[in-house]
Structures are given as structure tokens and as C-alpha cells.
Amino acid sequence: MTGISNRQTLWNDLGSNQTQWDMVIVGGGITGAGILREAARLGLKVLLIEQKDYAWGTSSRSSKMVHGGLRYIAQGDIKLTKHSVEERERLIREVPGLVDRIGYLFTIRKGQFPGKIAFNTLLKVYDGLAGIKTQKYFDKKTLVQKVPGLNDKGLKGASYYTDAATDDARLTLRVLQEAIAEGGTSGNYMQGETILKSVSGQVSGIRIKDMETGDTADVNAKVVINATGAWVDKLRSQMINEHKIRPLRGSHIIIPHHMAPVSDSLTLFHPRDKRPVFVFPWEGVTVIGTTDLDHSQDLMKEPCISKEELDYLLEITGFEFPDAKITKDDIISTYAGVRPVISSDTSKDPSKEKREHAVWSDQGLISVSGGKLTTFRLIALDVIKAAKIELGLADTTPLSDIVISPATINENDVSASDPTWARRLIGRYGNHAKTLLDNVEEEEKGKIDNTQFCLAELRWAAKHESVVHLDDLMLRRSRLGSLLPKGGESLMPRLEPICKQELGWDDNTWQSEKSRYLALWKSSYSLPTS
């Protein structure tokens, strides 16, 4: 196994036979990938489908943080925090180079709550639950040395601790590939359109629509898992008239790192409403976010930052880094995602909504939503437990707690330019990191501009990772569309031969895909038009 299931081969199989699947999972984000991983290693015959691209939704648009849920301690939920930090530590151990520990600085200003003593006490408990000791305190002088250009007015210092950061889309793909290696099957650009039911109303399968051709296929399944996040109410409404999800949009801006040169993630409080906003290093740039507001637009369309959100994020950037004089003209790109929060009370402050997950079982349709990136494995196990009841399986089979199998190669086996980069590639591709670089020309091994990506990765993804459109390659298999000016338009001449060779695109297809991608980037990943 070298990658993800071949989409066209899978579709041909779905349309030509009446396979009885034990489980069909609808939703190709981190939750769906985690469920596929657990179901496959139980020996179930399981299929995952995704209506857009893998990680197209929330799982490529998060704040990139694998964190333990510090806020849950303040809410008194020690058990949830402990589970979260244990999952964080597991991922740091399993995929170094993809999930890495990062420092967090909780800035403290005069009159701010919580203050130094209260927050440091909280952090000691937080570290203790993870079995580590990273908490410390930096005074004002030390802090401004660590964060050049930070506004020092009223600044007292910062409490320091660690969590972790990742490339959320690539983490989803790694988990998905682990599941496929275990025997799972998946297909992107396939929509779960209609729940199929028996005479008694029990789920018997699902009608799948090929989003590229419009063709449909009826698939038999003993149980259907609705892991569609913010979209979960839509599919579940075919079984029960109940709405549980409050879609909340969070937007970010990306600026050159030198304009806000942070090496740790800063937690800052917005001068307007005192909401926490993060300023953090990621992939060689600085990311600032997030906002938190109700998202009322069509969920099938790419979410994008609004003018109000842009102004909000520039306001705190200007307040915290006044000498940098950062304006919208300095922004490399933006991105927005929709969080699936379980709530029906739209009068409640979005930032005060809880982020726990929930599972609902409706006559063979098991729906799951909410939760956070860090605990995807625990969410998957809750879903599997509910599915076992529907499948008549005993809940006694022990499950491995390994999410991603350790690579059997090390940095010395990879012909990368330095050990740190080799570690990164192994984290992202496992044992394939060596093959990825061994089978390309030397010029494709070089890092692209100031990023950590190379053309060899794009070639590998095009060949092995079910790329259907150019935005799959630029925004999720790699993050070059978010890191390069104008979405990486200058890279197109070097990318064209790779797409033609590995994807079989002709001149017309290439021109169409390039135009489609650049228009999409301008409308959803650049500055708001109104």
C-alpha cells in the first residue's frame, strides 16, 4: 500500500456489485478518518466517503493546535483534560515531525484576569496531568526579548507552558492512510445523498452520488456513520427531525513571520472584547486568529473571512505589534473554517459554547459531531461502541491505543537536505518519505521559496493521494496555497508537467484547473471583496 484508495476504481466497484458493507462512514475529516482506522482494525468491512476532498471542511481550517483543553480545568472537568493531554502526548510520540511540542505564552497585563498566581497554579495541574513539567514564568524584560516588537504597555510578563501544533490536513491523511493499510476503503468527491431503509425503517444502506459526474450508486450497509461535522443535521434529518448543531465560523490571517516574529504561540486578549486570540508560528509564517461567530452561509460553499473579521484581527495585531504597522496589504492569505458546536441556543456568546462531542443513534444511523482535533481517537472509540450495539458485536475486543504506526526508517535513511527536514518528511509520510525523494530528479527535492515543501511531495500526492482538483494539491496535500503570495501562482509553470504526468491532464484540463483554483483562492483565501 502506497497511498489512498484509487477513487475511480472504487466508484466502478460500487456501481457494479452489491457488496454488503458492515459500515459506511460519511465524512472524510479527522473524525471520519479516526473511525475508519478503528473499524478497519476490528476486521469490519468498512467504507468511508467524503463529499468534497479529504479534510476539506473543519479538518484543514483549524488553528493547527493539538492541545489538552486547558479551559476544561477551569470548568472543573479534570477527567476530560487528562484524557486530552494523554492523547496529545500520544501523538507527539507517534508522529514527531507532524505533531510537535510548541511553547505557549499566556501574556499577563495589569488588571487582567486570571493573573499570574492563578494561571500558574492552573498550569502546574495541567502539566501534572500529562506527566511533564514545562510551566514557568517570564517577566516583562525577558518576554519582550523573546517577542520583539510586542507592545509593552501595561505588560507584566507571561506564563509559559507547552502544547503541540500540527498540519491538520496532513494529520487527517496520515490517519486515513493507516486505516487503508489496515483494510479500510475510502473515496473522496462522493456524497452520502440518501439513507436507504428497510420496511421497518431500519437503515439498510446509503445512496452515494459521484460529485464529479452526478452518477449514483446504492450501497448496502449494516450501519451508517454520519461523521459530517457541521453538516451532521442534514443527513440525520432523514431519520429524525432534530437539529443539534450551531455552526460557528473561525477565521485567520497569515502574515510574513518577520512582521510578528514569534517562536512560541502567544495568547493575547483583544482590546475590544477581551476574547483570547492566538498569534503563532506555523510553516514559516505567522498566523493570527481566531474569530468566533455564527456562520449562516451555505455550508457547501467555501467559507471565507468577512471584512468585519479582517478588521477585528488587524485591530489586535496593530495593538500588540504597533511598530510593525501591519495592514491588509501585508497579508499573504486568509482562511476560514466552520466549527460544529452542539447547541441550539444562538443567543449564547459563541466563545462560551462548550466543545464536547456527542453521539446519537437512530435505527442504524449513528451520528457524531463536536469535539476537537486532539481527541479524535476517543471520539472514534465512542462511535465504535455505539456501532457494535447496532452490529450485534460484543464490546469486549481490546483496541490498540496506537493511532499511527511508527516509521521503521530514520532521518539517516532519507536523502533530505538536513535531519530536521527529514524528520518532518517522515512525520508526514512515514516510510514513504524515503521513496518520495529517491524517485525524483534533484531539482524536485529543493524547498520551494521560504517554505518546507518541495515538488517531490506534490508529485507523490498527485500520484498516490487521490488528487482530483488543483486545490486538493495546493491547499490540503500541501499548504503552498496559503504560504505563497497570490496562492502560489508563480509555481504553476513548475507544477503543470507534474499534473500532466501523474494525473493525466491535457492542456485544456490544466488550464481549466488552474483558472478554477486561482478564482477559488481569490474568493476564499485572499482578502474579502466586500
Summarize the structure.
This protein has 530 residues and is of the alpha+beta class. 35% of the residues lie in helices and 24% in strands.
Features of the shown structure:
alpha+beta, 18 strands, single chain
Explain this structure to me?
By secondary structure, the protein is α+β, with helices and mostly antiparallel strands. It is 35% helix and 24% strand. The chain contains 17 helices and 18 strands. Strands 3, 4, 5, 6, 11, 12, 13, 14, 15 and 16 form a ten-stranded mixed sheet that branches. A hairpin with a 6-residue loop joins β12 and β13. α2 runs parallel beside α7 (168-181) and α2 (30-41) packs across α10 (376-391). It is globular.
Number of helices: 17
Number of E strands: 18
Largest sheet: 10 strands, mixed
Mean pLDDT, all residues:
94
Oligomeric state of shown chains:
single chain
Helix content: 25-40%
Shape: globular
**Roughly how many Å is the radius of gyration?**
23 Å
Q: How much strand?
A: 15-25%
Give unreliable regions as ranges: none
Structural class label = alpha+beta
**N/C terminus separation:** 47 Å
